[in-house]
Amino acid sequence: MAFEIPLYRFRKDVSFEDAKRVALGLNEFLRTAPGFKTRSTYYDDKSDVWIDVVEWETMELALQALDDFSKSPSFAEFVKLADPDFNLMHHGNLIQTFRV
User: Fold this and answer.
1) Which of 29, 56, 70, 96 has its CA 20 to 30 A from that of 77?
2) In sequence order, which residues have a C-beta less than 8 Å from that of residue 69 and are 6 or more positions away?
3) Percent helix, strand and coil across the chain, each to the nearest 5
């Protein structure tokens, strides 16, 4: 199991509602991406940062989806509104899940 954790912002002139619409619009690509399992989206209003936690079946499928994503219509709309100076992407394999 692999995880992808992007952190991103939208441009200052983009309203919260437009940012949310575009962020949630990325689900259209994920819906048919091979190996996709789940996506949770969070918003930190103090830092104005959006955080996704995306679960994939394998790291290979996660990285292939990242490459394919750049060719999707939802990516084109995202890029138009995203802050080009703040976009961090992390990938990792699951080590542990701890619950109490």
Assistant:
1) 56
2) 29, 33, 75
3) 35, 40, 25
Give the total number of structural domains in the chain.
Answer: 1
Provide the residue type at 43 as one letter. Answer: Y
Verdict on whether the full-model pTM lies above 0.85: yes
CATH of the domain at 37: 3.30.70.100
pLDDT digits (tens, 9 = 90+) for 36-87: 999 999 999 999 999 999 999 999 999 999 999 999 999 999 999 999 999 9
For residue 99, being part of any structural domain is answered with no
Burial category of 94 from C-beta neighbours within 10 Å (exposed 0-12, middle 13-18, buried 19 and up)? exposed
Q: How many CA atoms lie within 13 A of 88 on its CB side?
A: 7
Residues 18 and 59: their CA atoms lie apart, in Å, by 31
